[in-house]
Amino acid sequence: MTQLMGRPILGLPSDLDSRSTLSDLLTGVRTALLTLSVIAVPVFGLWVLAPYGDDTAQDAARAVFALWLLGHGAPLARGPGAAPVTVAPLLLTAVTAVLLSRAGRRQARRARGRGWVRWRSPLTVYAGYLLVAAVAVAQCADPQALLRSRAVPDLTAVALLAAAALGHGLWTGLGRPVALPRPPLPPALWPDGAPAVLGRALAGWLLALTAGGGAVFAAAVLLGSAGREAQQLGGGAADWLGMLLACLTLVPNALAWSASYALGAGFDVGAGSHAGPLGTRLGPAPDFPLLALLPADRGPDWHLLACAAAAAAALTAALLIGRAATRWTPAQTAATAVATALAAVPPALLTAHLAGGALGPGRMSRLGPVPWQFALAQAAWLLALALPGALLWRWWLGRHGDGAGPVVRARVGAYRLVCRLAA
């Protein structure tokens, strides 16, 4: 007994920080259930308020699973003709990605071992999340379900999003920043601080473009007829709340569509129909409040003012690059601006792919921005405005010669000193 009491507790073979495989598996299941609860609470609330007696609790649960799968970008089928439904509500996608990233950061605190011991916990959490996804796919595979799932593409979509979000949280939780790959350029074209400047310029471009899309969307709401459309479609309290929740989940999609409109690329509203600032041609569209915001069939007029949002976003990137390029050569500044334009292509392709999709066969099989047009328009705006703008802003800041850099730093230092004295 004396020998047992004299042994240090922390020297036991099983570390107190270790977790069993079952605990990690339940952590993944709990994360999936948390994302499901974000959808289940309003859906079951609407099911309780709905006056229809032919919908059962199982039907409401299948609707929850279907929306959860759609939030992961999984393609579903609707009706007896298996009409494709591939438009992902990006608000649910964003909430899911944030919760998964937080779970990945929590797992990073426990990843202290090496080899398999280090990665066992995150992989087990990932397996637990996919276990819930398999249950969701099985529930929606019933022929009686309103939205039916397909096992292979749906599980693949869930696995890709979960791996990306968990991996991001795990990587950042381990203290490793997410950096863009270095282009194969010599130091004469790619200085040491270029990756950080490129990241700031790309973030500024995306944030400014999103804000510009929000301004275009807000103008469409103020000038459109979404309210009248909702009054015509709405019935009881459950109908109004359901329509409101559906519109809210699709607001990020509408921002992406508005940003594509501001870029000049526009977006499709069905096969043969297109909306853009240079002209709009529309055909029959489903009765939905957000689709009532579409511009009327007319030629280019004041709608071209929407392109000011894209110009402002490109100038934001130009200012961020030019401000940091006071010590660079014009070739290095131009190379950074071109690299920013190229770096904007992958997120544009992904965003356009997720924001659009299909709501049915035939004409409704094409909705949203065309990915390659959306990406090409972003690169074109950055090359047309950010490239000369960065060179011009660099020249303006460095017009005093070699002492411009110290002058700028002296002004920043004086500003910080005044702020400290005022505090």
TrEMBL record:
Keywords: Membrane, Transmembrane, Transmembrane helix. It holds the Pfam family DUF6350. InterPro entries: DUF6350. Signal peptide: none annotated. The keyword Ubl conjugation does not apply. The chain crosses the membrane at residues 32-53, 83-102, 123-141, 202-225, 237-257, 302-322, 334-355, 375-393. The keyword NADP does not apply. This is DUF6350 family protein. It comes from Kitasatospora phosalacinea. The lineage of its organism: Bacteria, Bacillati, Actinomycetota, Actinomycetes, Kitasatosporales.
